[in-house]
Amino acid sequence: SCCPEAFVTMVRGPKKHLKRLNAPSHWMLDKLSGIFAPKPSAGPHKTRECLPLLLILRNRLKYALTGKEVQQILMQRHIKVDGKIRTDSTYPCGFMDVIDIPKTDEHFRLVYDTKGRFVVHRIGREEAAYKLCKVRKLEAGKGGVPYIVTHDGRTIRYPDPDIKANDTVMFNLESGKVTDFVKFDVGNMAMCVGGHNNGRVGTIVNREKHKGSFEIVHIEDAAGNRFATRISNVFVIGKGKTPLISLPKRKGVRLSILEEQAQRFGA
What we know:
Distance between the termini: 77 Å
Strand content: 25-35%
Mean pLDDT: 93
Largest sheet: 6 strands, antiparallel
Number of helices: 3
């Protein structure tokens, strides 16, 4: 009844595979040890902005040699992400996620290094109890109930009336409550989480509003270097110049190629 050409362009469901060469470069996978890469499951972080659990346990922490060993570790329910046990080896962990291994009493937070790559940063037990979440939007739901949506897909009802979009909230993973928040203000510490300056940390200096276009934020790092990026790439991580989380080495200050070279050769 229907012409056969109509079926040629039909989509056959969601994509279940990811070729290794198409994987995000910040995963730092080599080209030759296989054809495929783990395709992240649908979850709180986007495919290109996450690190699957499999890569964290095998490639970063070296707790397993193969994907099958990772699966065995997960199925013994040893790994928690944001306080919940996860058994999916391709679960997408993203920026600010806390990974706990209760058996070894180890805690890690996913943050960016100065080159925009994920670092599995070791933290203490006190710091592992919370995470920072950027507020993506503030809206009123059914019955006029106000709620905020965070960068990791959480919906938090009845937030503090002072919390607005682009602010950062401190989220307690055990109670599921917001314990503190930081306004998106000039003078506060922020990290770039996208774009060319991904991973750089500095103080917000200026915020330019462009009607009908992107708002631009100017940031100055600890070394006095200034850079500008879109407001969507800026994640406030501290009040004033004190961060609410511990930062990996270099503390978010990107070196130039020459400075890196001098440091490497000890000149």
